[in-house]
Amino acid sequence: MTGRHAAPVPGPSPAPPPRGGVLGCHDLVKTYRRGREEVRALRGVTLEVRPGEVVALVGRSGSGKTTLLNCLLGWEAPDAGTTTHGATARGAARTSWEEVAVVPQRFGLLEELSLLDNVALPARLAGHDDPAAAAVAVLEALGLAAVVDRAPAEVSLGQAQRTALARALVVRPAFLVADEPTGRLDEDTTTQVLGVLRDLCTTAGTGALVASHDTTTIAHADRVLRMSDGRLEPDA
Ligand SMILES: Nc1ncnc2c1ncn2[C@@H]1O[C@H](COP(=O)(O)OP(=O)(O)OP(=O)(O)O)[C@@H](O)[C@H]1O
Ligand SMILES: [Mg+2]
């Protein structure tokens, strides 16, 4: 697809991330325990995201999407199962932002930095020649040119959400994991954001795993994986 407002994401970092391999997991199991209560959030989940494809992860609220993404990223420890991260043999805890970048469901922006500095940060850490220019380019592509100097508390939730996406895209990562990245956006803005994401997947070979309830996002995916009660549905 091509987004109506799609604009190119800035050029590659000086040291491009390793390409190839897959982002995936095998037989992930995760149970939350609170006193005598048990929530079986993941009950044996296996999936694979290949370079260049956009995979939507759908399912009712509470079906386990965020738990799956967090375990895949190493942010939470699964009780059982394994994960694979791109072309490197390193574990999730040592995976760099250029290998796997993330858009968390609650954004995770640094409140004391401007939007521009939030987005420039990973480019700076990656040794980009001009992190600010790279950040401005991706913020502009996502329709945020007018607010780049504001703090996260001074923008709308939809603008903060797009900033979190910009921070993930700025290094042109090998893989992108995004948890509801369009949940706060209207349909036109969603289409714009999906255009930028698709452009990145096409030009940089980024493989994206996107948890979403949003029909526009699902319609634009190459593949849809459906979660239900901690499992992927078999026809996925
Ligand atoms: N830290 C926790 N402790 C206990 N239970 C948890 C914890 N985190 C998540 N859960 C439970 O695990 C299940 C899966 O939650 P998860 O956040 O993965 O769902 P989700 O599919 O991302 O939902 P949503 O679409 O609302 O974001 C839910 O029943 C949730 O209440
Ligand atoms: Mg969630």
Blueprint (SSEs and pairs):
Layout: E1 22-34, E2 37-49, E3 54-58, H1 65-73, E4 80-86, E5 100-103, H2 115-125, H3 131-141, H4 157-169, E6 175-179, H5 187-204, E7 207-211, H6 215-219, E8 223-228, E9 231-232
Helix pairs in contact: 2-3, 2-4
The structure holds adenosine-5'-triphosphate and magnesium ion.
The site of adenosine-5'-triphosphate has 12 residues, from strand 1, strand 2 and helix 1.
GO molecular function: ATP binding; ATP hydrolysis activity; transmembrane transporter activity
Protein name: Putative ABC transport system ATP-binding protein
Region (Disordered): 1-21
Key descriptive features of the protein:
globular; Rossmann fold; alpha/beta; binds adenosine-5'-triphosphate; 236 residues; six-stranded mixed β-sheet; disordered N terminus; binds magnesium ion
H/E element sequence: EEEHEEHHHEHEHEE
Helix content: 25-40%
Number of strands: 9
Bound molecules: adenosine-5'-triphosphate, magnesium ion
Largest β sheet strand count, sense and barrel closure = 6 strands, mixed
> Measured on Cα atoms, how large is the radius of gyration?
17 Å
Q: What's the tally of helices?
A: 6
Overall structural domain count? 1
The best one-word shape is: globular
Which spans have pLDDT < 50 for at least 5 consecutive residues?
A: 1-6, 12-17
CATH top-level class: Alpha Beta
Provide the CATH superfamily: P-loop containing nucleotide triphosphate hydrolases
CATH architecture annotation: 3-Layer(aba) Sandwich
Overall pLDDT confidence: 89
- Percent strand equals 25-35%
Distance between the termini: 21 Å
* Class computed from helices, strands and strand pairing: alpha/beta
Walk across the major sheet and give the strand order: 5-6-7-3-8-9
As for the CATH topology, it is: Rossmann fold
Region (Disordered): 1-21
Biased composition (Pro residues): 9-19
Domain ABC transporter: 23-236
Protein name: Putative ABC transport system ATP-binding protein
